[in-house]
Acyl-CoA dehydrogenase C-terminal domain-containing protein
Amino acid sequence: MPVYNPPLRDMQFVMHEVLNVCDDFRAMPVHAEVDADTINAVLEEAGKFASQVVFPLNISGDTEGCQLDQATHEVKTPTGFKAAYKQYVEAGWAALSCDPAFGGQGLPLVVNQCLYEMLNSANQAWTMYPGLTHGAYASLHTHGTDEQKATYLHKMSSGEWTGTMCLTEPHCGTDLGLMRTKAEPQPDGTYKITGNKIFISAGEHDMAENIVHLVLARLPDAPPGIKGVSLFIVPKYHVNKDGTLGERNGIYCAGLEHKMGIHGNATAQIVLEGAIGTMVGQPNKGMQGMFVMMNAARLGVGNQSLGLTEVAYQNALAYAKDRIQMRSLSGAKSKNQPADPIIVHPDVRKMLLTAKAYAEGGRALAVFCSVLLEKVHHHPDEKVRKDSDDMLSLLTPIVKAFLTDNAWTATTLCQQVFGGHGYIKEWGMEQYVRDARINMIYEGTNTIQSLDLLGRKVLGNNGATLKKFGKLVTALVMEEGVNEKMAEFINPLAVLGEQINKFTMELGFKGLQNPDEVGAAAVDYLRVAGHLVFGYFWARMAQTALREIANGNTDPFYAAKLQTARFYFAKLFPETATLMRTARAGSKVLMDTELALA
Amino acid sequence: MPVYNPPLRDMQFVMHEVLNVCDDFRAMPVHAEVDADTINAVLEEAGKFASQVVFPLNISGDTEGCQLDQATHEVKTPTGFKAAYKQYVEAGWAALSCDPAFGGQGLPLVVNQCLYEMLNSANQAWTMYPGLTHGAYASLHTHGTDEQKATYLHKMSSGEWTGTMCLTEPHCGTDLGLMRTKAEPQPDGTYKITGNKIFISAGEHDMAENIVHLVLARLPDAPPGIKGVSLFIVPKYHVNKDGTLGERNGIYCAGLEHKMGIHGNATAQIVLEGAIGTMVGQPNKGMQGMFVMMNAARLGVGNQSLGLTEVAYQNALAYAKDRIQMRSLSGAKSKNQPADPIIVHPDVRKMLLTAKAYAEGGRALAVFCSVLLEKVHHHPDEKVRKDSDDMLSLLTPIVKAFLTDNAWTATTLCQQVFGGHGYIKEWGMEQYVRDARINMIYEGTNTIQSLDLLGRKVLGNNGATLKKFGKLVTALVMEEGVNEKMAEFINPLAVLGEQINKFTMELGFKGLQNPDEVGAAAVDYLRVAGHLVFGYFWARMAQTALREIANGNTDPFYAAKLQTARFYFAKLFPETATLMRTARAGSKVLMDTELALA
């Protein structure tokens, strides 16, 4: 019953009118030839695949879930998942932005970003099977040996094999230093790995012929803690020299979790019983390779929530126009009907616009990040590579936490638009809420993201990277400060841009005296930073829309964009007022609570 | 695996130390003899029943759900539900606060309030079966004929028969004026009723021998809209003159909804095929009787969310003390363990304290409301009855919407404390979130509550009732304004008390010019009012705690209460800063969005 229309027009707007991504690509030899038409044409096809093949499996996949055969340890995915994945592989979607050296199509990452936004809108649970492969691919591409790359990357680019990341154990999630899984060196240079992993997304399934697990484990002589963790490739099936599949490796699915959502994805308990693996990177430096994957996954999780926000919005909008109930407070609007469509009610519009503003702001940020990542890999200028890496490091926890918190709000509000029907499975809205929930938790909880942002990315370099983002804001303010039509967007942004510097310095100072001050303020801080970033992109989108209108462009898309920008600055952005106040309320009221929390 | 300890100490604190409910009862002849010991003793037993009998069925009830036999139209509730209900009836819990004239025990409503908070903590889905009966009972008690009362109220007091409210139809929820179900008068004074109802909670089940449906329907000559709706009793089984059960009536369950949560409760599609009913109250005045039930239900829904907030808090607290992961930012706290319990982290404490502050503030408000309702029914002074009724009318939408929104936040945060384990069904936390979700929707969505509050309860009488609440605030400010120890609680409350008057006047003025201004501000306004009310009760609780400490009472309960009060005012109350700002941003940015919402 739900609908999904790929937001191609908005993607084109962000890519080609606001951010001019092809200008950036022209500076990179590998992408110098990429043009907007190519990108748009690929995404149009991608949208068809997402909406026509993957989307119809979303509710059925949730209802059916995954089944583990305890005897064979094999997992059966929901009906239709395997066939859709076969189409995905055959059409080459897996290889879109992969390295041509390993069979990839070499398109810019922004294409993959937009493909995955649409796949996530269509079906988050299904999309996690191919989605996790990209992180494992990136980790091996960066840290693997030539032999490892030759053995695995072609098959991962094609999607014939999928990847996982095996970090978590029952007693350790956030705190990977507590890890117990052991890797014993073998005479042939391989390792025999033994231990228990949990929460392994796409950890076992029937969609690909092999699964390439990237597993964290400890060497016998490893130092304690996170500095004694190494990374290993542990394939489900060994790979023969000629590339064919060999024996089954000693890595099994021992159970599947019963979860709140993403039922179509197999969240596996993985047992390693002397499984044979090869090391990726250096001994005890496993987190280096894992962080490549984890950073990709964090951006990917933000993208999951972007997708859910968009699809929830589209469905709530359709329902709000269709459902008639009560009259407008300002007088009947549909006099030929017994009641007005509920979209006439201000609060219904507020709920819809919240989701819309979060989706479109999130899309601009996500596309921006994909271009940064492209520059990190492919820009000829080392300084640009370094600056892009810094900026992406700053924005990654914001993408992960701000987009996923926003999606929780947005999917909940879109469900609310449906009234009682929103609580009923058949309408599909409650699934978006359940699926969105995990995104705030996995790949580092949103509290962890906030500590990463404030503690490491901001205070860790005395606000240097934040100031770089601040320079973008200042440049825009300078550029548009005298444009009266931009005042409603520029003024609040300029104010926050100034406030956040003082706010950051304050927190840095307090944090030096008492580190708990950082922990107490971090979650509020991340949302303030998120609004600075969203405010910047919303102002740029408004700037582009105003420019087009001034140039006589009558496409209503631009006037619509201005309406959403106005809503964003009037109704969502002011959240920063409370956030700065509560952050400043400090840690004492949290920490002096031994009796209250007894 | 989850735990639940009835919060008897906090209930006693609120009832006997803060609100001194027995002083109020002494002024009412029917309750003049009730003392604290009696109330406490009953609640201690109630807590055992809730935690030992009903709580263990919560997760299993969610997993198993209800089954409809399509051939017989009978519903099988989850294993154990029926047996627990039998114990409930036999122990007399149903009759606790019912009228002795109909077999009730005649205890004050506050006892029932606290019983139901505990039952809701234990198992919301189970508790809805007996819970809805109270509203139907109250409606019949107020509007039924003597014959109707004699026929139904004894069995409903005892719990042998349960009640429902049948309002919603597929095309009408909020807008009951669109209702189509028809009632044709019969020569014997009864009515033959035909139509389709949906979303009927506890609409069919195997726990009681009869179900007393209160059904809204239209007479053949009814005027259109809400002024043409009448109320009828339609029992599942007819009742013979001697009180025994007769023939099966023509009212059937045609289907059960598949829902996000409250799986243990049967949400029935009800078909009436010439079902025979008798009218309650006057023709076309059905909403009068229904509103008795609906107001009871709205307080009841707030109480459901209070219960969920409390139990989610208790479990998150236990987990946060038990789970070790990472070190405190301010240095290791449990040096003999490989990591610290996660409760050392400021943001974990913030999540826990948010739930605690919402639970305890909600408890004070809910108890206060139950005393108001008692006064409405039993106070000898007419003015007190009238004032109490006004105040309760004002507070009812706040209880419904503020407590349920808070519970959504609180259960989500408590789930977050569990990290990945929070997403797994076995831990029980995700169920609290799913169950809490319906409370924001049913019995009038929270948007409807906000319009009821701002449009009808506040602006509808030019702020007169709000000013009455303001007088309570002012009295407290006057009483404690010079007490330095109370300053941290009184000062923010005093400021908001002044701000809200100006804020309300502004909205009233804007609303006169454009009614959509009311609709645009209402949801924000309700949360501001909610914080005024919570701020008042938190200040009163702090006042009591400070008094006890000053008197030399060394029970750590009081110091704990002060810690939570400080947290509330420092971290939650400041939300009002943003809310007033966004409300003031007005309706234009919502309504001038035809293109954005195209």
Summary: Residues 449-590 of chain A form one domain.
